Amino acid sequence: MNQTEVPQMKAPLVPLATLIGRELRNEKIEKPFVKYGQAALAKKGEDYFLIKPDCQRIPGNASTSFSVFAIFDGHNGVSAAIFTKESLLNNVLSAIPQGASRDEWLQALPRALVAGFVKTDIEFQKKGETSGTTVTFVVIDGWTVTVASVGDSRCILDTQGGIVSLLTVDHRLEENAEERERVTASGGEVGRLNVFGGNEVGPLRCWPGGLCLSRSIGDTDVGEFIVPIPHVKQVKLSNAGGRLIIASDGIWDALTSDMAAKSCRGLPAELAAKLVVKEALRSRGLKDDTTCLVVDIIPSDHPVPAPTPRKKQNVLSSLIFGKKAHDSMKTSNKLAAVGVVEELFEEGSAMLAERLGRDFPSNASSGLFRCAVCQVDQPPSDGLSVNSGPYFSPTSKPWEGPFLCANCRKKKDAMEGKRPGIPTVIT
């Protein structure tokens, strides 16, 4: 491809003073308070969480602050959960162009989350360890909430009027027919555990490995059709705020979303998290690691959340779903006035071509291309670019995504079942 045909996507460096001035001119300084609480009880000791309420898009500029909350529910050991906790945030931030305004930053965040999850998985699998982890990763910037998830930890949103919404998708093979079809199409087998006599027991699992989940980070021994590509949902709250409950499956195996939200309404976040855990234990007992984060996004003039009694849902108080609007950062005053939560973005495809877009940043002076996943600059001859054939499957549809280095290209093909030599497993 002629270098002059490639769009120049890499943003130039912008002086710090210019960025700060842009923030002060174009963005509201008034931001909601973010209050949070955490509670956990360990059965196996494989749950980990991340709380970072003081992140800044522009270092030293408090008006660019954002918060990160995450839960990592490990299995087959703790290595993947610990590694992901320590690496994921930096990998996500490295995939966002420098010098972006707040609106540009928020629009780039869903794609950066996909790149960060995949990069973290590639880095962990190089360690040669076999553990895995679910991830529910929440970024809060003002009234905008972005949630990325793999596995079956969950994040719910409880808003004024008692309307509870699920911001994640469970990647359990037992409940997700679309994921079962994807795994089998990519070379895995889905079935229950066979015991002596041919009886099948337990939930649906993927073989090899016997994992109940279709998406995770790690799980090197299971097969790369168990992908780290997250479901991502981004919403904007009204100025009435809302409450997030982020928890591992130890909570959700015992409580429905409505039960969890109702059990702690009107209480401070710290006490609310403890009560959600207590309610789960009362219902089911300590069967699994049980971790809960409660995060309140509160208007600055109401630092203490008011009780939100359950009301009958109506058209004005219900969530707006099904609208993908990358350019809808400018929420209308009418929406905010009636307490509607606006969906800005939602995508759950496991195909990188659909998640990373079709642009590919380049360095005009050096002729190098930047890998959309690992963010390493390489010559185009060393990677995969627009309209080149897949590395392992020349008869398949041409790759129409961004530039990928050779290593990330192999990862893409493996996740799509195009790597030769996938073992055949008899269950």
Task: Please write out the topology.
Layout: H1 16-26, E1 33-41, E2 47-56, E3 65-75, H2 79-93, H3 102-125, E4 132-141, E5 144-150, E6 154-159, E7 163-166, H4 177-185, E8 189-194, E9 200-207, E10 217-218, E11 231-236, E12 242-247, H5 249-252, H6 257-262, H7 269-284, E13 290-298, H8 333-337, E14 342-347, H9 352-355, E15 362-363, E16 368-370, E17 377-378, E18 383-384, E19 404-405, H10 406-415
Antiparallel strand pairs: 1-13, 2-3, 3-4, 4-5, 4-10, 5-11, 6-7, 6-12, 8-9, 11-14, 12-13, 15-16, 16-17, 18-19
Distinctive features:
24% helix; alpha+beta; 2 domains; disordered C terminus; 427 residues; globular; 19 strands
- Element-by-element helix/strand order: HEEEHHEEEEHEEEEEHHHEHEHEEEEEH
User: Would you identify the CATH architecture of the largest domain?
Assistant: 4-Layer Sandwich
The separation of the N and C termini measures: 47 Å
Please name the CATH topology of the largest domain.
Phosphatase 2c, domain 1
Number of helices: 10
Question: What is the CATH C level class of the largest domain, in words?
Answer: Alpha Beta
Domain unit count: 2
Catalytic activity: O-phospho-L-seryl-[protein] + H2O = L-seryl-[protein] + phosphate; O-phospho-L-threonyl-[protein] + H2O = L-threonyl-[protein] + phosphate
Domain PPM-type phosphatase: 32-297
EC number: 3.1.3.16
GO molecular function: metal ion binding; protein serine/threonine phosphatase activity
